[in-house]
Amino acid sequence: MNFESTLPFGTPDLMRVSDFQRYLDELVLTERGEGAPGFLASLSPSLMMDLQRVEQSGHAADVLVVLAASLRHGHALAVHLQNGERVIPLTVFPAQQLAHCPVPLEELMSGRLADLFVMHVEPAVMRPPGDSQASLVGDLHLYHSLPQLTWDLAMRGARDELLPEIAGQAAYRISPGTALHTLGLSGTLLAAVTRLQRQSLNLRDLSEFPGFDRVRASRLLNALYLQAGLIVSRTHPAAAGGR
Description:
This is SapC protein. By secondary structure, the protein is an alpha+beta fold. It has helices at residues 17-34, 45-55, 63-73, 105-110, 146-156, 187-198, 203-207, 214-226; strands at 77-83, 86-93, 98-100, 117-123, 143-145, 171-174, 230-233. It is 36% helix and 15% strand. The strands form two sheets. It has a five-stranded antiparallel β-sheet with strand order 4-1-2-3-5, sandwiched between helices. Strands 6-7 form a two-stranded antiparallel sheet.
């Protein structure tokens, strides 16, 4: 059985966390009765495994891990985020590099991004602009740049360590041709990016760059990975001793 989207299209109202939690509890009971996680059935096995690992971790799910999975597998997902006492449905479209959010992105980005927690993940029901199923396309002004969103969440969100896919002994360099000019980089952040465009560095080396520490270096590498702009080498000489 496939479950319908929790929030109807076009509504300015956001569900309260307590109400959404009751919905999730009922969803779990329904799945147990049917013997299969229907809301993930349309996803690829590899992505389903990633998302089940997130949901079964026993901790508040990491929005950055979920977005990385969506981008890595190329699947559009609806990510229901707890933001205080309300739930914000964020729909991401990796193929179109877009994200839909019913809350003005400026409002969402101006808050404490570290306080956003994933409550639930499901296949996207909404469609991107220009899709043949026009009734499922939202208001155009509520679609935003996915690269900018992932950059902001990586640099200012809750996660302050490397994503699992790029962690460990490795050397990092920015892929040639990676478009970062729209991100408004300046100061020590721009200097670090410029250096990573010219040479491979490990996490320790980047952490020692002026204006950086291990947390800021990890955030930058995560942000670059989510831009599909990071070369990760396990065999480069700089990888040795760089954990």
